[in-house]
Amino acid sequence: MTETSTITSDIVIVGGGIAGLAMAARLAHRTAFTITVLDSDRAPEMPDETLQLRTTSLNSAAMRLLEEAGVMAHLPSRFLTDFDRLEAGSRNAPDALSFSARDIDLARFGVFVENNRLRTALWQTLMPMAQVTLISESRLSSLQRHDDHVDGLLDDGRALNARLIIGADGARSQVRHLAGISSQQRDYAQEAMIINVRLTEAPGNTTWQIFTPSGPVALLPLHDRQASLIWYDRPGQVQKRMDMDDDALRTAILEAFPTRLGQIEAILERGRFPIRRLHAQRYAGKRVALIGDAAHVIHPMAGQGINLGLADVMALAEALEHESDPGAAQALSRYQRRQWPRNAAMLTGVEQLHHLFTLPFAPLRTLAERGLKGADRMAPVKRFMMSLATGQPLTNARGTEDHDTQP
């Protein structure tokens, strides 16, 4: 990039995580707008062969977005793990709710991939694009919105001028704050412990989750007999396990996880992060839009965080791609009407599921387990839940898509 005192671009995306970079890639693929991405971190570099701590699931809709943008060319297939079956239940009924991709005529639900590899692949995709400018280690410090443009300042004193600002800068979004958009937030008083392991036998292509009174335990199958174990619990309990040596942690895992896990050959890495919920009051305002964690943070038990963010990317790009002015109010309003209700429904549903399976009263948890079994026997319910997991539109009895209506 040529150093100037003012950065001028049609669209400035604040945040160079997965959602922000995917937004730039989608817009570059579908429009002629000039795009600048500002990221507070250093430019990413592709990790070595070592398994990275944070892993995400990409549903089939997200995969199509990335493939169309050329991102998969920078992501070796050996680091992608297909999953074609999802199971959820309790210790007494571990597969009470079971989904197969074949039930909706898909070869797979999606893939698991390490976050850092995906982010680096996105960055590498954008680097040679003439209409995209990537600026690392820069932060937005101020923002002034006008009828036909946006002015701002970076922390290094440089100014920016754009027609649209997109906030993709995470749960503590500076863009959301500067735009005066409020949010509803909640701390679940719970943490997720991530434990990367190598198993004695390959975990297959099924991802599963077992609900317990203290929170779920889950397995994400990965390549080379590796897996990511997710263990939700109160922060104090998570800290105790973080302090254990490998042998003690292995014993604790085998006691808490179902026997289907099998034997653990090695514990590779461990980490923790808090569980919170956040939903912005709105996703769009005067010449500003929010996507990804800047707009919503969902309980990770559903594995939908990145997928919801990438659905935002697709919806906002579709709203903008036929506009001459990317900050046009009608385009941002279309995005708001489409995405806010959909994401609100998903956040509410996952929160209710969390409450249902962490009830302190055992008989009510038993009713919840029976509810899972009941849902498994109801084909329309299963198809609806799988459509959420895959990002695929539902089809009605005539084989045509069902579209939600927006006001």
From TrEMBL:
GO molecular function, one term: FAD binding
Pathway given in the UniProt record: Cofactor biosynthesis; ubiquinone biosynthesis
Domain of life: Bacteria
Entry keyword Chaperone: no
GO biological process, one term: ubiquinone biosynthetic process
Co-factor requirement: FAD
InterPro entries: FAD-bd, FAD/NAD-bd_sf, UbiH/COQ6, UbiH/COQ6_monooxygenase
Keywords: FAD, Flavoprotein, Monooxygenase, Oxidoreductase
Pfam families linked: FAD_binding_3
Family: Belongs to the UbiH/COQ6 family.
Name of this protein: Uncharacterized protein
Originating species: Kushneria marisflavi
Taxonomic path: Bacteria, Pseudomonadati, Pseudomonadota, Gammaproteobacteria, Oceanospirillales
